[in-house]
Amino acid sequence: MVLHAVPVGAGSSDIDHVLIGPAGVFTVNTKNHSGQSVWVAGQTMMVAGKKQRHLYNASHEAERAAKLLTRAVNQAVDVCGVVVVVAPKRLTIRVVRALLLMPLAVVLATLSGHF
Known about the structure:
By secondary structure, this protein is of the alpha/beta class.
């Protein structure tokens, strides 16, 4: 099941996409950085040389979704946060031990179209 623009909390806050299936529950934060260089190491993500909060935000969204779902179904629900980078010029990922411990994934989207 795929849910789009899932509202959370008060105001206009939402989660871009929530995927629910046999592999688990994933919150997906899509970022259009077409034509820009993206660099990721550990918990740091930089776009065109500027530090971004995308990894922190995706992790926070996953934690928030896990709490809401756990409360709704009255049992623990694990949620993995995912950042999808759409059409970057270059994507560099430096594998650091901290990245392996984080329940967060960075995905390169090369699909045409909009999310």
